Amino acid sequence: MKNHEKKNTFVTWTKIIYISIAILIISFFSSNLAMGAVEISNIKFIGQATLAKGLSFQKTEVGGLSGITYDAKDNLYYAISDDRGQKANTRFYTFKIDLEKGVLQDSNVMPVGVTNLLDENGQPFPSGKTDTEGIAITKEETVFISSEGDVGRLIAPFIKEVILSSGRVTRTLPIPNKFLPDKNGKQGIRNNLAFESLTITPDNKYLYTATENALIQDGTASQPNLGTSCRILQYNLQTNQPEKEFLYLTEPIAPFLNVTGKFASGLPDLLALDNQGHFLSIERSFTGLGFAVSLFQISLAGADDIHQIDSLLAVDPKNIKPVQKKLLLDLRTLDIALDNIEGLTIGPRLSNGQQALILISDNNFNSLQRSQILGFQLKIESPIMRLLRQLGSVFKS
Question: Contact at 8 Å (CB) between 338 and 291?
Fold first, then answer.
């Protein structure tokens, strides 16, 4: 082969290689931007705070804190109490949590407000009519609140939008029939195992909640060494309608020195990380001696929409693709005593640029329990950073 032919061949192959690399880069770039998904690459514990037992604020007992949400605009946190109107009106609290030094301790947490919930007529909810568990802030100076209802009294669960400044209900989302309690006990939510969780996507287009355990017609509640089948429910906030449902399978948990015989396990909260169906989830169990709490990152990508399936027992579960889960942290590995962790929210960026994560516990107004607040630092990898890491791996290989 002549020199000029060799040169032309070299140039041709060089062009092919460069074009191939360009196509690879564009492919990676397009797929990652299309996903737009964040990924938690590291989580670090930065401390805890415990509210004083029997803490009183504005003539109410602070407790039963089952859900928490962060108001980035005002750097405030709103925490819902699950008091059913027995100690005071149905309400949520406003907290300041100082994370400027990147650590969390008792002195960093302070209640600064309490807001009573008012129904559509501007009246407090009657005692025993609510079991408020979830709270999620919107961009419209409102929060959504979820209630588990009361199966024994055939009180349905609800999801309502509430004005932050007044606590008054402005909107109620419809609940699909399959979730409603049934007088014959053949379908619907299980008592105290319903809509604990509540979260809204960053673009404010979708709201998600989930059952803490399986619906009656979907299978058994969690048992020792046996998980349960929860349903994640997606609402379109533009139409106010439920659109999709997804199967979430909790992990089986072994009881530990369970001399009392009491056991409970389930899905108490979700937190939307992006607009593409990626969340953090908490799974919390009472194991007989203390609590087991695990934090997962989950994805709806590839999960089947099951909203048209009224009973999971009526279909082959092997044909249903559940949400994908990845364990981020088993909190039992932390050197602290865990309480009844039920809520979580993303907080502000810390001084080192990492994202804060706050978890909160429901003390059940029990003198043996605590209102515990846990702080974490998250390293969140953006799509661009993930793209660069993936490209680096390709060129190294």
Answer: yes
Answer for the pair 172, 212: CB distance below 8 angstroms, yes or no. Answer: no
Q: How many CB atoms lie within 10 A of CB 314?
A: 9
For residues 148 and 131, the answer to whether their CB atoms sit within 8 Å is yes
Q: How far apart are CA 252 and CA 341, in angstroms?
A: 18
Q: What are the φ and ψ backbone dihedral angles of 177, each rounded to 5 degrees?
A: -55, -35
Q: How far apart are CA 164 and CA 269, in angstroms?
A: 21
pLDDT digits (tens, 9 = 90+) for 15-43: 566 555 545 554 544 444 444 678 899 99
Q: Which residues contact 217 (CB under 8 A, 6 or more apart)?
A: 178, 186, 187, 188, 310, 311, 312, 313, 314
**Torsion 57-58-64-65 (CA) sign:** negative
Please tell me the pTM assigned to this model: 0.89
Report the candidate in 132, 119, 115, 125 with the shortest Cα–Cα distance to residue 77: 115
The amino acid at 300 = L
